[in-house]
Automatic annotation (TrEMBL):
Pfam families: 7tm_1
GO molecular function, one term: neuropeptide Y receptor activity
Biological role: Receptor for neuropeptide Y and peptide YY. The activity of this receptor is mediated by G proteins that inhibit adenylate cyclase activity. Seems to be associated with food intake. Could be involved in feeding disorders.
Organism: Monodelphis domestica (Gray short-tailed opossum)
Keywords from the named record: Cell membrane, Disulfide bond, G-protein coupled receptor, Glycoprotein, Lipoprotein, Membrane, Palmitate, Receptor, Transducer, Transmembrane, Transmembrane helix
Protein name: Neuropeptide Y receptor type 5
Gene3D superfamilies: Rhodopsin 7-helix transmembrane proteins (1.20.1070.10)
Membrane topology: Multi-pass membrane protein
Residue ranges of domain G-protein coupled receptors family 1 profile in the record: 109-285
Family from the record: Belongs to the G-protein coupled receptor 1 family.
PROSITE patterns for the chain: G_PROTEIN_RECEP_F1_2
């Protein structure tokens, strides 16, 4: 029985990284087959990471001093095992069509909303102001999320450089978070107007402050992303590849607990809190 063993050097050690365990004699043909099996080594200045096939969870990026950094990484090209190129092309066509349809409809729909609100600019109500800002933030989501996510998914690499690798996730996170916070604001205003119609409602000036606060909260919560995103180079052939280097944009957190805390914070602010506010505001009126 062929044993598929890879010797991975411990943090701070050099040596037989990526070598097959040869304690048991392996026939030449099987050894060649084993050596060709998928193993991905991610290299970045001062960092190494070994990826095993069929392991799609969060990885650990360890530097030469032994400090481990939690990393989220996924390579759709690397996990392809069927070799069915026709099937892969069909999937790509479906993904491109889906992303394109959603992006075009989202952009055109929100632009129509902005144009309609601009024609009624004399009706400066707090609800119209919130809806306009919601449409604007949704346009940012379409512009910053769909194209870059689709290109990284299809190309299996990041081609826009280090700056965009750090900037795009931050803009994506901020625009989505602002859209969520504005939805909460609309739900609160709706609840106040229906439940307490005689009370003083929010003014447009107060709405401006609330929208500004939403953007500030989005910037603060998403601020760790430009710090912990980086470009790394997957190298599966131990440096023998003579083609142009291929880079991927990944998260590299100093500790796994930091990544979990950030993910939980986003879960609460982007999903749990809006869900509770919308349910309460709609069921209470």
């Amino acid at each position: 029985m062929l044993r598929r063993l890879f010797a991975v050097s411990a943090p701070g050690e050099r040596g037989s990284e990526g070598a097959l365990d040869t304690l048991d004699p392996v026939p030449g043909q099987l050894e060649d087959l084993a050596s060709g099996w998928g193993r991905l080594e991610v290299q970045s200045p001062g960092y190494t990471m070994d990826l095993e096939p069929e392991d799609y969870d969060n990885r650990t990026l360890a530097n030469e001093n032994g400090t481990e950094m939690a990393m989220a990484y996924y390579d759709p090209e690397w996990v392809e095992t069927s070799g069915n190129k026709t099937q892969l092309d069909d999937v790509q066509v479906f993904v491109i069509g889906l992303y394109s349809t959603i992006s075009v409809l989202g952009f055109m729909g929100n632009m129509l909303i902005l144009m309609a609100l601009m024609k009624k600019c004399k009706q400066k109500t707090i609800v119209n102001f919130f809806i306009g800002n919601l449409a604007f933030s949704d346009i940012l989501v379409v512009l910053f999320c769909s194209p870059f996510t689709l290109s990284a998914l299809l190309l299996d690499q990041w081609v826009l450089g280090e700056l965009m690798c750090r900037l795009m996730p931050f803009l994506q996170c901020t625009s989505v978070l602002v859209s969520t916070l504005i939805l909460i604001s609309i739900a609160i205003v709706r609840y106040q107007r229906i439940k307490y119609p005689l009370s003083k409602s929010l003014t447009v000036r107060q709405g401006c402050y609330l929208v500004g606060l939403s953007w500030a909260v989005g910037f603060v919560i998403c601020s760790p992303l430009p710090i912990f995103y980086r470009l790394v180079e997957p190298n599966g052939n131990n440096g023998t590849n003579t083609t142009a280097p291929k880079y991927v944009c990944v998260e590299a957190w100093p500790k796994e607990s930091y990544r979990i805390s950030f993910s939980l914070c986003l879960l609460v602010v982007q999903y749990i809190l809006p869900l509770i506010c919308l349910i309460v505001s709609h069921t209470s009126v």
